[in-house]
């Protein structure tokens, strides 16, 4: 019976701690002093070159803010880092172009980004022939 009581007490402490942590996060978000709820955010602009750390500017009525952001250096620059897509598998290789194609459907547009609903990407066909089973070298007795 004591073990059950101890377990119940521990569970209550964990629930209270989680509720307090959630409250602290909400208070932290409100500390910026802005009561504006209709923010318009621009694209992430890298500090140098075309990828890496940068910032995005936001405006709401007469207010403006800058947020830190990051553009991964291997990202498809055509789509922008704020447009997230769900891609299907690569299609077959086209003998005429030597390219494979696949499409992606918009999953999420971050910061109210203007994103295309469907995008298409291509890549060169592989010149290597991948075999699923590798030949095993056995030690036979001669």
UniProtKB/TrEMBL annotation:
Any single Pfam family the record assigns to this protein: PTN_MK_C
Function statement: Secreted protein that functions as cytokine and growth factor and mediates its signal through cell-surface proteoglycan and non-proteoglycan receptors. Regulates many processes like inflammatory response, cell proliferation, cell adhesion, cell growth, cell survival, tissue regeneration, cell differentiation and cell migration.
Signal sequence, renumbered to the chain: 1-21
Lineage of source species: Eukaryota, Metazoa, Chordata, Craniata, Vertebrata
Organism: Certhia brachydactyla
InterPro entries documented for this protein: Midkine_heparin-bd_GF, PTN/MK_C_dom, PTN/MK_C_dom_sf, PTN/MK_diS_sf, PTN/MK_N_dom, PTN/MK_N_dom_sf, PTN_MK_heparin-bd_GF_CS
Protein name: Midkine
Molecular function GO labels: growth factor activity; heparin binding
Entry keyword set: Developmental protein, Disulfide bond, Growth factor, Heparin-binding, Mitogen, Secreted, Signal
Occurrences of domain Pleiotrophin/Midkine N-terminal (ranges): 23-79
Domain of life: Eukaryota
Domain Pleiotrophin/Midkine C-terminal: 80-141
Single GO biological process annotation from the record: positive regulation of cell division
């Amino acid at each position: 019976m004591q073990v059950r009581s101890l377990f119940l007490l521990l569970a209550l402490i964990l629930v209270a701690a989680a509720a307090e942590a959630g409250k602290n996060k909400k208070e932290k978000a409100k500390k910026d002093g802005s009561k504006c709820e209709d923010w318009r955010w621009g694209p992430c602009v890298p500090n140098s070159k075309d990828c890496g750390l940068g910032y995005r500017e936001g405006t709401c009525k007469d207010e403006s803010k800058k947020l830190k952001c990051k553009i991964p250096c291997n990202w498809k620059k055509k789509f922008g880092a704020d447009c997230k897509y769900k891609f299907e598998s690569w299609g077959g290789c086209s003998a005429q172009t030597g390219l494979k194609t696949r499409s992606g459907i918009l999953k999420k547009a971050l910061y109210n980004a203007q994103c295309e609903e469907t995008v298409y990407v291509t890549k060169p066909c592989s010149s290597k022939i991948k075999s699923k089973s590798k030949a095993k070298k056995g030690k036979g007795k001669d």
